[in-house]
Amino acid sequence: MKILDYFELEKNNTTVSKELLAGLTIFIAMIDNIAINATIMHDAGMPMGALITATIFITIFATLLTGLWANTPIAMSVGTLNVYFTYSLVLGMKMSWQSALGIVFVSSVLYFLIAITPIRKWIIETIPMDIKRATAAGIGAFIAFIGLEEIGVITASHETFVKLGDLSNTYTLLGIFGLLVAIILSILKVRGALILAIIITTILSWVLGVTNMPAEFISMPASMAPISFQIDIKSILELSMLPLIITFLVTDIFSTIGNLAGIGLKINLSNKKLDRTLQTDAFSTIVSAIVGMASITTFIESMAGIKEGGRTGLTAVFTAMFFILPLFFLPFFESIPGFAVYPILVIVGSFMFNELKNVNYDDYATKYATFFIVLLMPLTYSITNGLMIGSFIYVLIKLFQRDFSVLKSAMSLMALVAIVLFFVL
After folding, report:
1. Where are the alpha helices (DSSP H) in 151-237?
2. Is residue 65 exposed (0-12), middle (13-18) or buried (19+ Cβ within 10 Å)?
3. Is residue 120 exposed (0-12), middle (13-18) or buried (19+ Cβ within 10 Å)?
4. Using CB atoms within 10 A as the burial measure, which of 93, 192, 225, 387 is most buried?
């Protein structure tokens, strides 16, 4: 078929059946993100039904575009910046979710401009890989902190900042149960371990009468209208918003580049395909903000499909098609309790924390920047604070060591933003 010639299946040593299996595998590995993202953004005051539909829609849109434009076996969906969106901007800074969407939109437009210009290369090449690793680990620590807090394992304390929560609470016990199930299934390398943990915990809560089973499991998709085209740009046109925009921008780029680096090693990703995948990520994030979602990113779960033989964009096309199915299971997704979802943040956080093992601690600038990035993100409840202070410390130490080449890097730009943010404004 001529339509299949575009994907160059024979050249990539793959077949339609292999691509189909790979697409199904990625779908199974990613399906838990529907409940996770909707639950997190629901905490920002957004309606659950619209969030579920929008999450699925943008996953289909971005993944399909990746397959058709970049021709890579890579899936995309809303990433961990949804935590920053909800808990730092909306709940932490008391910003409206409409204004937070404005930050996502502006940062994504800048990201798209970077993705189609040489600036992309400057940022990618001048921000050290170890700082990218530290950022990933810091975000991991932050989202794990959120997960433990939401299921009640830790709670606020006036004396010690945080303390151990009431572990005898029913919701907390079920959350701990879900966490243990997720850990065990992950250790056993069970495919779809995280979504299985969510389902098992949810069913147990129904059996115990803690939550109610939905009256029906199948329905038509909820409308996205309550959250779509709700971007408030006017309220964020202030200098004080610049660090927040940069944080979204830089973190989104870090996330995508980091994931693509790992995936690219497995499938020999060409520069053309890398560029097109970045462009897809950036453009999809613009659309994501328009439909009421946080930033899109490349999902490392795509590796599961690659292990099954997926090599071309046809894998992504099949993945997108499979995501049409959850659109009609709204009652089930709405019935999933938070204590079944938040343990998964702890697991995902632990996966991201693995990045620290590859950091070069012999370099003083890297060592101290990594320490402050990872420590301050959860402790200050802000990805911005950790990233900006870490960047400032990195540049300061490099200058002390008379390594003035750092002034030509994107690190110096973030250090300058940190100075304005913390010492001028």
Report:
1. 170-187, 193-207
2. buried
3. buried
4. 387
Summary count for the chain: helices (H), strands (E): 19, 4
In 260-381, the DSSP E strands lie at 296-298
For the chain, give the mean pLDDT.
88
**DSSP three-state, residue 386:** helix
Q: Does 35 map to a domain?
A: yes
Give residue 96's pLDDT.
Answer: 96
Q: Which stretch of DSSP H or E encloses residue 155?
A: strand 154-157
Q: What is the dihedral of CA 400, 402, 403, 407, to 10 degrees?
A: 80
Range in 217-221, 223-227, 319-323 the model is least confident about: 217-221
pLDDT on residue 204:
96
Cα separation, 36 vs 31, in Å, equals 9
- Tokens read off for 283: 């453009």
CA neighbor of 382 nearest in space, from 341, 420, 421, 346: 421
Does the residue 235 lie in any domain?
no
245: Cβ contacts below 8 Å, ≥ 6 apart: 103, 106, 107, 110, 236
Please tell me the pTM assigned to this model: 0.76
Instruction: State the amino acid at position 310 in one-letter form.
Output: G
Two structure tokens written together for 366: 């890297």
Name 180's Cβ contacts closer than 8 Å, sequence gap at least 6.
Answer: none
Model confidence pLDDT, tens digit, residues 133-171: 888 888 888 888 988 998 999 998 888 788 999 999 999
| Cβ-based neighbour number of residue 217 at 10 Å | 13
pLDDT tens digits, one per residue of 254-273? 777 766 765 665 677 777 88
Say if residues 249 and 111 touch (Cβ distance below 8 Å).
Answer: yes
Question: Which structural domain range is residue 317 located in?
Answer: 14-220+241-362
Chain centre to alpha carbon of residue 170: 29
Residue 5 domain-assigned (yes or no): no
Average the pLDDT over 180-188 and give the result.
93
**For the chain, percent of residues with pLDDT exceeding 70:** 96
Burial label for 142, CB within 10 Å (0-12, 13-18, 19+), is buried
Instruction: Give pLDDT, residue 253.
Output: 79
When divided into structural domains, the chain yields a total of 1
Mean pLDDT, to the nearest integer, of 35-63? Answer: 94
Q: Is residue 262 part of a domain?
A: yes
- The H or E element that residue 338 is part of is helix 338-353
